[in-house]
Specification:
Strand content: 15-25%
Largest sheet: 3 strands, antiparallel
Radius of gyration: 17 Å
Number of helices: 2
Strand order of the largest sheet: 1-3-2
């Protein structure tokens, strides 16, 4: 396949991450504060749908989200809730 080069055009491979507003805020925070090894990764905010991010950042974003959820989730103690 032939690739055309055009002045001022940059092609970036990305992925749409569908998420609720609280996760989107966290993803924007990670990007704004350069918290990932890959640096800036947010390509576009897609409103209610989610965000469009660099494909290379997806695994790292998921890891950060999982860690954030683990830190903020309350776990029931044994015998609690009976």
């Amino acid at each position: 396949p032939m690739m055309m080069r055009m002045a001022g055009v940059r092609i970036e491979r990305g992925v749409v991450l569908k998420c609720d507003s609280s996760i989107k805020v966290f993803i924007k925070y990670l990007d704004d504060e350069n918290k990932l090894r890959c640096g800036k990764f947010l390509l576009q905010d897609l409103g209610d749908v989610g965000v469009f991010v660099k494909e290379s950042a997806v695994d790292e974003i998921r890891k950060e989200i999982d860690q954030m959820i683990d830190r903020t989730t309350l776990v029931k103690e044994k015998g609690e809730g009976r």
